[in-house]
Amino acid sequence: MGGCRRVGVAVDFSPCSRKALQWAVDNLVRKGDHLILVSVRPGGYYETGELQLWETTGAPLIPLSDFLDLDNMKKYEVSPDPETIDIVSTAANQKEIIVLMKIFWGDAREKLCESIDSIPLDCLVIGNRGLGKIKRALMGSVSNFVVNNASCPVTVVKSHD
Questions:
Q1: Which Pfam families does the annotation name (predicted)?
Q2: Please, are residues 43 and 109 in contact by the beta-carbon 8 Å criterion?
């Protein structure tokens, strides 16, 4: 398979999303690929400003250099953790990949599925919190919804913590 691929990883900066990100870096991305971190923030009501403009389509793709500037990320209401920053910075340098971030606001299940077509992504990697059957039935599983509704291959990385 030639050319660059757009590999998406759903991130919420939790341990299970870091595990999915690390799995994608170790097992999926290769030289020349675009690694796109897809983050979904809870929906809110924004009267003015950039967030109101981005509420439907999501923020523009954010390059790694901007992602590393924590003050810059405040305008997106995102606080990347040091471990995630280390994973993507190391991957960008060692694997010679382009790292970008796309932020959406709203329901994670729906926005992750929408991101596949709007970015567009060739595949998506998502973590699994390991909810039990009762919690999954009551709260719903984001990964299960995405697997059943996505228009591209989805890999679920289970968290055994």
A1: Usp (PF00582)
A2: no
